[in-house]
Amino acid sequence: MTSFPRASCLPLLAALVGGCLDTGVAATEASTETSSSSGDGSSSGGPMTTDASSTTGVATTEAPPTTATSIVPTGECGDMVVDPGEECDDGPANGDEAACTPTCLRNTCGDGLVWVGHEACDDGPANADDGACTPECDAASCGDGKVQAGVEVCDDGVNDGSYGSCAADCSARAAHCGDGTIDPDHEECDSGTDPACLGSCQLATSCLRIHESDPSLISGPRQIYPFGPVQSFDVYCDMETDGGGYTFLKVDVDSDVNDLPYTSKKAEGLCAGFGMRLFVPRSPAHLASAFAVATTPNVAPQGGGDNATGQDYLQILGIYPVKAGISCLGKALTPSTCPQWSANDGGPWYVSDTVKNPAEPDGDGACASCSMIYTWNLDGSVKNYKTVAGAGGISLRFMCDVGDKLPP
């Protein structure tokens, strides 16, 4: 009998069982050995045959069965491959509290799933500034600057009990505008029914204050209270020019009850009686607005007269020589070109950036508190101006302003 090395395999057997089996070699030898040998290599039982199907000792090997959950078919959520329609796929790590959800969508605030380590809560569509869970997926708490409905009364993020703030426990508002009590350190008034009291709890002393309290208001006639709630005047408020807030008070003294004529010095005194100054144009836009107000019947004048329109409302202005007798002959009337002249409050002023009268301002007529007399073109630009010796220019009509609004 021919013996084979135990480490070798027949090619056919190797193909069938996928490898070498030691017991397979011995079984093959046993199946081919006869009970008596003739000594010549032949068997008394006839030719030796090998039947793989009847051979003992050769094991048939099959692959173990695969369970249905051990492998996720390709193209499905959970296979660790980001397929079309998926935002992510972390395989077994997908979860309601993970970065990638069981539906292979990224865990985001508002999806109703709490991403551990990143979100404190997530109530989905119920997330809200006044909800238990905020739109940022933070749990609502006193001090977060959001008022939780049914739980907090006030929460501004400061919560120190100071004026306009909230109590430390978010249970109430501190003293504030609108509580009906005047806080002298912050308020001039506090009444929702007093027309002199603005929503900012400041008195309506000028158009600028009215504009700052409610920027949505349009230009038009309004009442102001320069001396408090006891006395008001009708003025025109320009809520647009240079950002809005210019005050225009028309004064017509053409009445027998007045001591005429009115010079600029006298006009300044009457304007002071209204808590204002003789009008000073602050910018080209402000001058254009003043001309439109002067020549339009928009608000009734103060002072006893009843003429509501006319260019002569700009006949005298609150612009005077810094020092009497010193002028800027043949210069344009702006602070940079004519520094020898100044507004009545030292603020910005504007008449013209080109020379309209090369013979003016005349130093001989440039007296202290004396206004030039001005005439105007139909487009609102200055036509001419002239110093007047003695008391200066006079007019039956002029305008006053508060002077708190300046160009930007």
Task: Explain what this protein looks like in three dimensions.
Strands 1-2-3-9-4 form a 5-stranded antiparallel sheet, sandwiched between helices. A two-stranded antiparallel sheet has the order 5-6. It has helices at 11-17, 22-32, 207-213, 264-272, 284-294; strands spanning 220-224, 233-238, 246-252, 277-278, 319-321, 341-343, 373-376, 382-386, 397-401. Helices cover 11% and strands 10% of the residues. The chain has 408 residues and is mostly loops. Among the domains are: 1-61, no CATH class; 246-401, Mannose-Binding Protein A, subunit A (Mannose-Binding Protein A, Chain A), CATH 3.10.100. The chain is elongated, with a radius of gyration of 50 Å. The chain is built from 5 helices and 9 strands.
Identify the strand order in the major beta sheet.
1-2-3-9-4
- Rg, Cα atoms, Å: 50 Å
> Mind telling me the CATH class of the domain at 246-401?
Alpha Beta
Supply the CATH architecture of the domain at 246-401: Roll
- Total DSSP E strands: 9
Reading the helices and strands in chain order gives HHHEEEHEHEEEEE
Biggest β-sheet, characterized? 5 strands, antiparallel
- Going by helix content, strand content and strand pairing, the class is little secondary structure
Q: Give the helix proportion (percent range).
A: 10-25%
Large-scale geometry: elongated
- Which regions are unreliable across 5 or more consecutive residues at pLDDT < 50? 1-61, 66-70
